[in-house]
Every structure is written in structure tokens, then in C-alpha cells.
Amino acid sequence: MCTTHTISILVEHKPGVLQKVTGLFSRRGFNIESITVGSSEIENLARMVIVVYADNKGLEQVKKQLNKLVDVIKIQELHSNSSVKRELCLIKVQTKDSKARTEVFQYTDVFRCNIVDVCDNSVTIEVIGHPNKINAFIKLLKHYGIKKIARTGPTAVARGSAN
Amino acid sequence: MNGGEAILKALKEQDVDTIFGYPGGSVIPLYDSLYDDDLRHILVRHEQCAVHAAEGYARASGKVGVCLATSGPGATNLVTGIADANMDSTPLVAITGQVNLSAIGNDAFQEADMIGISMPVTKHSYQITNVDSIPSIVKSSFDIAKSGRPGPVLIDFPKEMQQGELSKYETTLIETPGYNPTLKGNIKQVTKSIDLIKKASNPIILAGGGVIISGASEQLAKFAKTINAPVVTTLMGKGAVPEDDDYALGMLGMHGRLVANKNINKSDLLIAIGCRFSDRTTGKIDEFIPNAKVIHIDVDPAEIGKNVDVDIPIVGDAFNVLKMFNDKLTKYEPNPNSIKWLDELKAKKTKFSLKTNYDTTPLMPQTVISEISESLTEDSIVTTDVGLHQMFAAHYLNVNKPRKFISSGGLGTMGYGFPAAIGAKVACEDDPVIAICGDGGFLMVSQELATIQSYDLPIIITILDNRKLGMVYQWQNLLYNKRLSQTDLGTVPDFVKLAESYGINGVNITKPGETKEVIKNAIKDNEAILLNIDIQKDEFLPMVPPGAAIEEVIGEYNFVDESLSNEDAAK
Ligand SMILES: Cc1ncc(C[n+]2csc(CCOP(=O)(O)OP(=O)(O)O)c2C)c(N)n1
Fold it and tell me: Which segments of B182-268 are extended strands (E)?
């Protein structure tokens, strides 16, 4: 049975590595749902967090194949109950009249988001949180008319003392 | 010292004695350095043959093969061979010229993104962006190419890096923290496996190319004899154990030997060593070894559990792991049932001997292969191309030593056999080398006749000439309603004249006995020769159709004992 899995990969921070990793997924027939890359706590190493849709056997194979890449140092699967997952999303939403604007402002408060830009007939909101929270917020704003959404895709780390 | 000189020095520090290559604009500086160097360079006549020759060299010697090509088209001509080496775990370092660093990305003349193009088919790759790193990059490339599961490494070498002066020639270790193959097996898994082996009545060993790569043949023979298990092999595993020995049942698979194919599914324990359960070996995977527990030994953890579910995985080098088994099995008493099982299979192996001595003309491929077999010395190396002749060779030729049968397995690359023979001959000068080719595949690389003539390489080329793309022609006949689309090669060229035009002796073979005689003489005289052997175009090798279970062989064999039929082998 296919489900989404989040894997965190520590890689050498150099050109071509992203291509190697993503190429491996597509070559082996796996779809990446999202991918984030940035530097890690170790100099010269980057961390990628990839969300992939696969069954357990496929996931095993992906992890093993990733491990074979010389530039991949470490792979860890992050389970939802033992990890923290966060995503950043910017939403530009229409605010046709002052009523709409007030409501949007209120929702923004409730969801503990930030208004990062305002103009005559739209506002841009920054939402940070679990992808589910972002989905919920987007749903709420839909009927005001969403002009643009830009999501980073989630990044994640294991909780507490789990390494 | 400039970059060109540095790379040659670094190659020699890696014990390289020969490289195969073809020059061009962006490697002129490197070839200029080569001009004064004692490193041997074999000038092939097409880059694809440089890489196949390097593969043949590697497979015959166990060393890393090295090939060299210019940027752009020269480099892209290497891709097929790099992919071939990747599939067959052949240690290879491919060096490609590249346009100047400053020009990269501008679609400069003969620019191709080789790192990008080769990425899916290499084990690793480097681009040289600093002349001082050359010695270290070469060392790291060799370390990666030959360790763990071997494979191809590409070094992309921009032109100005070849000309640039090194501030200091120094080899430092390039850290690869993400690369540490597990070579030693886990002793607990070995112990657990021995318990399974003790209980097994019908154990069977499937040996792949990994056994040959790790030099584990003797350990395997000892192990098989101790636990009383027959051995079947993949195509890549041919020669892992002496195929003349009675417990060696030969190749399993789509064109596998009957006794192997018809009995593997009776096993209750399969011990797979250094193989990857390709579809060509297993047939329909859901119906493969339905009652067997599986122990899988492989240096590449990604192969374990990929195609076949495994009961006991053992990650490690085949030699190390088999030695661990043998050390623990010194006083082992085999399961009495397994003795019976092996005796039955040994008897079947003899009983189902195949008929080879036909006196028909055009010649039967079986007859030709068995004549080749009879003319070989113990040390002879056989390379094959890809097609029906390859399968006839794999089926009818007994290989008794590792590294003596060299064939393109995973990628199935036509045009492989002849250049691989060149590489094998360069690696093993004293061993006779025979290339078994089809007329189609030979024509893809026939220009290399010039190479063997220039370097005086006494290679014996046998062309099993059916004027068809035989393998495809067989499929069309058996599986596509005899719709013979585009598989007729006509009658061009005259291969003997072709050879002669390159200054190589050629001979047309039409009668039984001639193949053997000509090859024996060629070996004795240490002479290059091309045998154009006129074979039956409609003689097919029985096969397991794609998608069918491994025992579902279509096509009847002719046995020495004429009262036997295929089905008897299952009984
Ligand atoms: C480069 C390449 N192209 C196409 C094929 C597909 N193919 C496999 S076997 C074969 C026929 C080979 O014919 P020939 O070399 O005459 O050998 P035969 O099968 O007749 O022994 C073909 C076309 C291949 N394996 N490799």
C-alpha cells in the first residue's frame, strides 16, 4: 500500500548532488511530492527533506539506492509521531472590500500567521506550520479568491533525543 | 608538471599499463603528454570500442579498465559502454575531455554535459576544476571503481586543466564519508543460515558475477561440496565453478540449461550469491522458487530483497562470506536428503546431454559452439557478442575457470564481443582469445579489425553467420506470428574479404570439423584470423518466453539419448 513518507538525507553540499538524488527517484519510478534543501549543522553538508509517495518495499529500495550514492552520507525516515514537520507558505488573497479585509485579518490572527504585504485589494499572508494547518488555512481563504500560493514544501527533524 | 602529465603519472600509480582511447580537440594537450610517456595507448577506431575494450580488459584481468575520449561526440560515444559496465559491475575509469571551464555552459564547440549525461549510469563522477586535485581525483576514482560493487567512474577533464601547471604533485585522500561498502558478512546471519541449510532437503546455489568479481570460486566450490548443493549460475556467473564438474548444472534462465530450469523450483532453499535476480534469470518472478527459503549474499544491500523476498540477507563480499561459511562448516555432515537430491541432479545432468555432432550444412550452431569448445585450451578466454550466438555459447560451452567467459549481460550490448576481446587480449597476452559474434553485432564494430592489425593482436574472431538478426528473428518466428520485420541482413559483406582488406586472414567455414581445425591452428600459430561460419538460420535455441515461469521451456532439445524429451528433465 502506498503512503507518503518523509525522509531526511544528509548529503555533501556540492553541485550536482540535488540532480543525483532527484534523478534517482525518477529513474526508479518514484514521485517526489516535495523537496527542501538547505545547509545543515555540519559544514559542507546539506540536508534534504523529501516527501515521497511509495509502498514499504519501494521505500526500502529508494533508501538503499540513495545510500549507494557516494555523496549521500546518511538517510533517515521521519515518522509523523516522532518528528516535527514545518512548512512555509505565502498566500496572496483578494480583499475586495473592507469586510473581507477584516475577516482575513481575523483569520490570520486565529491561525497565528503574519500579514507580510498589503495593497488596495489584496493582502499577502505568511503561514508557517504543519502542512495540514496550511491546507486548512488555504481552504478557509478560498472563497475570497486566492491570487497566488507559494509553498516551500515541508522540512522536518526528529523530536527530542531521537537522532 | 602539467595536468596531462599528472594524470598519466597518477594512472600509473594505480597500476594502469594500458589505456584505450581516441583523440580529439579537447584532449590534444593530454595526448601531447602521452607522446613522451611510456603508458601504453591503444588507438581504437571508434570510442564505443575503447570503452568495451576497457571492459574486456577489466573482466579478463580483474583490474580497472581505462578509456579516454575527447569531449562532446567522443564522450557521448562512450555512454553505451559506461552503461554496460554499470549493469555488469565492471570496474572502469572513463576519462573524457571537456571544453575549457570558462566555456562550459555556453554550448561551446563539442561541449556535452558528460557529468549530467552519465549520471544515471555511473557509480560516481568527478570534474577536474583544479589541477592540483588531479592525483587525488584519480586515486579516489580507482578506489570507488574497484571497491564494493565495482562500477564505472567518469572523470571529466577540461582542456585547460590538462595544460595547467600543478603547484605540487600530491595525492591526498578525498573524504567520501557516504561511501563505505560492507565487505565483511555478519556472523550471526551466517550461523542462522547454517541452521537453514541443515534443514534443507533440496538446497541449490545460484551463483552470479559477484562470485567471479570477488575471486570466490574456490570458496564456492568448497562450500557447495560441503553442503552438498548443486550450483546453477547466471550468465554473468559462468565460470564461477567449473562447468565440467558434475554438481555444476550450468546457466539458469530464459535460455538456461534444461536440468537447471526444470528443477530449480523444486528446491526448498536457494542460496543466491553475488547475483541480482534479473528477469532473464528468474522467469516470471511470482512463480520462481515457490517453496524455497532464500539466503542472499551480496555486497550491494540494494540488490537484497529488490526482486525476490529474502529470509536471510547477508551483506558482504562473496569471498569473505563464503570463507566464513567454510570456516564454520569444517565438520559439517550434509542432510541425507540433500545427498539424494544432488545425486539425482548429477545423474540428470549426464542423462540429458545434448546432441551436438550434426553433420548438416549449413552448420548447426550447436556443432559450431561445441567445436569451438573442443579447440580451446584451459586458459582460453571467450568473449561473446549479444544475440542467439551468445545464448548458444552460454548454453553449449562449458567454462571451467572464472574470467574466461566475457559477455554483455545486463545491458545486452550488441557490438560488445569483438572490442571486449581486444581488451582481454591486451590484458592477458598469453591466453588465446576467441570472440564469438553474430554477423549483425560484428558489423557494428568491424572497423576494429584495423586495431588488431595495427597492434598485432592475435584474436580469433568467429562469426556465426546466419544473415539474420537471429535473436530478434527467433522471437518474431516464435512469438510474433512469423512477421519477420527488419531482421534480414541480406548477404553483404563478404566477411573474409573484409578481413583481408585489413590484412587479416579470413576463412569461410561450411563443413563440420573445419571450425575446430582452424581454431586449433590459429591458437598454435598465435595468429589473428576471422572465421566466417555459415550457420543454419532457422535453428533456434529453446527458450522461456518472456513473462513465463522458468520451467516453461518452448522448443524441444535434441538429446544424445533420443528417447528423452524436455519434460523428462522435470521428473
Ligand atoms: C546495440 C543493440 N541494438 C539492438 C539490440 C537488439 N538485439 C538483440 S540480439 C539482436 C540480433 C543480433 O543479431 P546478430 O548479431 O546477427 O546475432 P544472432 O542473434 O544472429 O546470433 C538484436 C538486434 C541489442 N541487443 N543491442
Answer: 203-207, 231-233, 248-251
- The verdict on the CB of residue B464 being under 6 Å from ligand 1 is yes
pLDDT in tens, B503-524: 999 999 999 999 999 999 999 9
- Cell numbers at A43, concatenated: 559544514
Q: What is the mean pLDDT of chain A?
A: 94
Are B207 and B220 a contacting pair, CB within 8 Å?
Answer: yes
Left, alpha or beta for A29 (phi > 0: left; psi -120 to 50: alpha)?
left
Residue B387 Cβ inside 6 Å of ligand 1? The answer reads: yes
Q: Is 60 exceeded by the pLDDT of residue A163?
A: no
Contacts with A27 from chain B: Cβ below 8 Å: 120
Exposure string for B110-149, b = 16+ CB within 10 A, e = fewer: bbbebbebbbebbbbbbbbeebbbbbbbbbbbbbbbbbbb
Q: How many residues does chain B have?
A: 571
What chain B residue is nearest to A28 in terms of C-alpha separation? B120
Q: pTM for the whole thing?
A: 0.96
pLDDT tens, position by position, B401-457 = 999 999 999 999 999 999 999 999 999 999 999 999 999 999 999 999 999 999 999
Q: Tens of pLDDT along B292-330?
A: 999 999 999 999 999 999 999 999 999 999 999 999 999
Those residues whose C-beta lies under 8 Å from the C-beta of residue A137, and which sit 6 or more positions away, are A89, A91, A107, A111, A113, A127
Q: Give the best residue of B89, B121, B124, B296 to mutate against chain A (max A CB count within 10 A).
A: B124
* pLDDT: which is higher, B210 or A28: B210
From the CA of B444, give the closest atom in ligand 1: 1
- How is residue B400 written as a grid cell? 571451467
- Of B92, B401, B56, B89, give the one whose Cα is nearest residue B276: B89
Count CB neighbours of A28 within 10 A. Answer: 14
